[in-house]
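Supplementary Methods, section 5.1.

A reviewer requested that the exact input to the structure prediction be made available. We therefore reproduce it here, unchanged from the version used in the analyses.
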Amino acid sequence: MKNTITRTLVTMRRKKSILALGALMATAGMAHAQSSVTLFGILDGGILYTNNNGGHSSWQTLSGPLLAPRWGLRVVEDLGGGLTAVSHLENGFSQFTGASLQGGRLFGRQAWTGLSSTQYGTLTMGRQYSPLQDFIAPLLISSGATGSALHPLDNEGFLTYRTDNSVKYVSPLYAGFQAETMYAFSNSPNFGTNRSWSVGATYTNGNLKLATAYVRLSEPAFNKDTNGAIPSDSYFSYSMTPFLATASSVQEWAVAGRYAVGHANFGLLYTNTRFENPSTGSLFSGATGSGGGTGSVRFQNVEGSVRYDFASDLIGSLGETYTHATEGPASGNYWQTNAGVSYFLSKRTNLYVDAFYQKTSRNLNAWIMLTGAPSSTSTQVAAVFGLCHRF
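The structure derived from this sequence is encoded token-by-token as follows.
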């Protein structure tokens, strides 16, 4: 009798253990289904030829001609009721040296977290892109085959500009319309120093996509500190004009559109960037510069482009950009032609060839941004062959 009772108790304990283990596994499965962490990245390198790089022709390796190398983590947690916790960490690095970019930051490209609601939109906080980059950048010629087709001096900051200490709200998509607004704190007792605010909107209807954005930077810390909204090591790092690092404020606005017809996508874009009261530097040969913190420097860019899908694995892009630059009484112009072809070996890997030609007015030296140095004349030609892999 005693042995029978003992065997019964042992059997009951085993059943309870099995049930507990099953419940634990079920709970773990539910938790896994409700949240996810995704590792992603891009590797992209090329060989660049320039006919006049500081007065000499050159061949060089180039990290990220099409898409800047990066790796990162996306985190999504379903909180129920249409509410989701979202986070994004993204590191930028040089493919040929392995060095971290964006001032050596671990997650210099992006670092933010927030809440997303299917009904009310998304609120995020951290180091983020502005509406100019979120809505306008995808409509540039550089979003096609020619990834390095930046405007002269990257004068809008599409490549180098991120905003620290920022809080951003993105509305839900309603009837093809979506809006975005962002405010970035100075983190200083002087509330108005080194802060930023921006707004933008986009509209999609079938084959048509339109976008607009406005950004204002108040006393950005180009060469002052790294604590405010615009750190001194993150903006206009390609610029050859020192006055861009000493402006009291910057205003940018843009409008862009794209329309698809069959296998072709036609794009048109206008941007206007104004640097107020730069204290030093000069853009034009023979000019004395604004000096003394008065006056302004302005860039206006008009871009037309077409992208054509020759096949599911072969796309081509062609674009023309006109840039008018003004410093006080002086002015100058840039004309740049961009052409590129990408061949996809798979959905994640492609080979590409991009070619660029730039001509300027006589008082300006040509400078295609990816070449690293201006030409010694008013013209410059560059071509790059590369391989890009996404994971």
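The two ends are 65 Å apart (CA to CA). These observations are discussed further in the main text.
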